[in-house]
Each structure stands twice: as C-alpha cells, then as structure tokens.
C-alpha cells in the first residue's frame, strides 16, 4: 500500500473539533494518507509565527509531502486560497503571507489560486476553509491531482515584510528578534553569512533589552541557571537564550526587539 504524507499546522489548539474535522475531510478524499501534526499551538492569528515554524519543519519531510497551513484570520473574506509548489513539496492554505519563508527558501515556486470547486467539500463554510477547502484539496493532491487542475497560476501572491540585518559604518550590525520559541529563546534574523569572514563570533558583544552579552557559546548547557548567553540555533539563526530559564522573560522583550552586534575590539 502506497502511503503519502500530509502535514497540518494551525492555530486551532486541540480542545475543539477543528483539527479532527480537518483530518476527517482529508482522509475522506485520501484514505491512505499519513497525517503528521506539525503543531496546532501557533498563537492565534499569528501569521509570522506560523510562517517561521512551517519553513523550519517542512524540509525534514520526504519529497512529495503536502503541507496544509491554516493560520487564517481573514477566512471568508476576499483573501485567496492557494496551493504552492516549492521544489518537491506542496503547500495548501490562505494567501496571507503564511508561505512567505517558503518562497524565500526555494527559487522553484509555482502558485495557483484554488478556484476549481469540484475539489472542495459541498456547502463550504465561510468560517472553516481548513476543513472545507484546504484539507480536501490536500487529499486530491495526494491522489495525484495536478496543481494546474486546481486553478490559475498567480504571480502577485502575498509576502510578509521580513526584517533585514542592517550594517552601520562602524561595523556594528542590527538584527531583530523574529521568533520567540516555547522555551523563551529569542531567535533573531542574524545568520553566519551576515558576519564578516574574518570575524570571530566568540569575541562579539551583543546588546538587547538594555543588557550586554559577550561571545557565542556552543550549547544550551554552557551557562549557569538564569544566565543569558548566545548560541547558533538549529535553524542556523543566532539565538539569545538563558540557562534553564526564559530569555524573553528575563529581558522583557518579544518579537521585533532590536539586537545590536558590536564590532569586535
């Protein structure tokens, strides 16, 4: 039996019927599908958090996986429903910027608007496109339906405005916190490619939330309890962390906070 994989990422939580209804709608179309829950704990309506989590999880799945993302505060409005092919993966969800980081990850992008209602459930609810549009379309894709059968290709799909690392004349860099994870680690948009090749990150000084933090360490265990320090995270981004504590709580900052990387002396 040929099993194909679908992933689900939503802000629905798990106390209501929403996730189960989506799974039922998908399995009604593709009964042999293997459904993997990425998370249903995206903060409500937080498209940026959904985009970050989706972009850092999808590439761990095998080619051909269909990823359903539903963080959709505009459900039932004029916002479009789309399917996206990025390399060997397909994404289904709202055209509200949720797939922005997917567009950044792969140059081979094809986006179509979901307009062929034959692949939707009957009597589509204005408030639950996850069940009535996205899940059945994902099932159809797992069954071999082509993107071109779902609707017309788009070129004006929505992208979120993502912050860039800024460089001052004196060599200082300014980054931003782009995600706060479950542990309170502050994930920034700074990656190794943003640093000059001759810069030793162990001798850098960081400023955030009115605090200075020196150097980059190797692991989360390299500090004493409640000590703030910096590591390169598994996604390749610089993270401000605290040993066995929440850096976000200790610093009193959240997504969007500025991080200054001072020139090494």
Q: In words, what does this structure look like?
A:
- With 265 residues, this protein is α+β, with helices and mostly antiparallel strands.
- The protein folds into 2 domains: 145 residues, 3-Layer(aba) Sandwich (Rossmann fold), CATH 3.40.50; 97 residues, Beta Barrel (Elongation Factor Tu (Ef-tu), domain 3).
- 17% of the residues lie in helices and 28% in strands.
- The chain has 5 helices and 14 strands.
- The strands form 2 sheets. Strands 7, 8, 9, 10, 11, 12, 13 and 14 form an 8-stranded antiparallel beta sheet that branches. A 6-stranded mixed beta sheet has the order 2-1-3-5-4-6, sandwiched between helices.
- A hairpin with a 4-residue loop joins β12 and β13.
- The longest helix is centred in the middle third of the chain and has 14 residues.
- It is elongated.
- The N and C termini lie far apart (62 Å).
Q: Can you lay out the helices and strands and say which pair or pack?
A:
Elements: E1 5-10, H1 18-29, E2 34-39, H2 47-55, E3 66-70, E4 81-86, E5 89-94, H3 100-105, E6 109-113, H4 129-142, E7 166-167, E8 173-180, E9 186-191, E10 205-208, E11 211-214, E12 228-232, E13 237-242, H5 247-251, E14 258-262
Parallel strand pairs: 1-2, 1-3, 3-5
Antiparallel strand pairs: 4-5, 4-6, 7-8, 8-9, 8-14, 9-13, 10-11, 10-14, 12-13
């Amino acid at each position: 039996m040929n099993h194909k994989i679908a992933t689900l990422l939503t802000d629905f939580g798990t106390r209501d019927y929403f996730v189960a209804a989506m799974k039922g709608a998908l399995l009604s179309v593709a009964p042999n599908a293997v459904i993997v829950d990425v998370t249903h704990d995206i903060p409500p309506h937080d498209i940026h958090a959904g985009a970050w989590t989706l972009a850092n999880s999808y590439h761990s799945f095998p080619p051909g996986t269909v990823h359903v993302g539903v963080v959709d505060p505009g459900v039932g409005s004029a916002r479009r429903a789309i399917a996206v092919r990025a390399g060997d993966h397909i994404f289904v969800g709202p055209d509200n910027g949720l797939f922005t980081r997917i567009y950044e990850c792969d140059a081979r992008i094809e986006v179509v608007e979901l307009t062929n209602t034959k692949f939707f459930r009957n009597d589509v609810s204005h408030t639950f496109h996850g069940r009535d549009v996205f899940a059945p379309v994902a099932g159809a894709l797992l069954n071999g339906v082509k993107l071109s059968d779902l609707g017309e290709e788009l070129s004006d799909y929505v992208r979120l405005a993502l912050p860039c690392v800024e460089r001052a004349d004196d060599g200082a860099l300014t980054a931003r916190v782009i995600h706060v994870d479950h542990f309170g680690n502050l994930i920034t948009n700074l990656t190794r490619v943003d640093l000059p090749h001759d810069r030793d990150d162990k001798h850098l000084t960081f400023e955030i939330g009115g605090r200075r933090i020196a150097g980059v360490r190797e692991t989360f265990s390299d500090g004493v309890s409640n000590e703030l320090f910096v590591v390169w995270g598994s996604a390749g981004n610089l993270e401000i962390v605290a040993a066995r504590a929440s850096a976000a709580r200790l610093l009193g900052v959240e997504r969007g906070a500025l991080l200054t990387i001072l020139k090494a002396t």
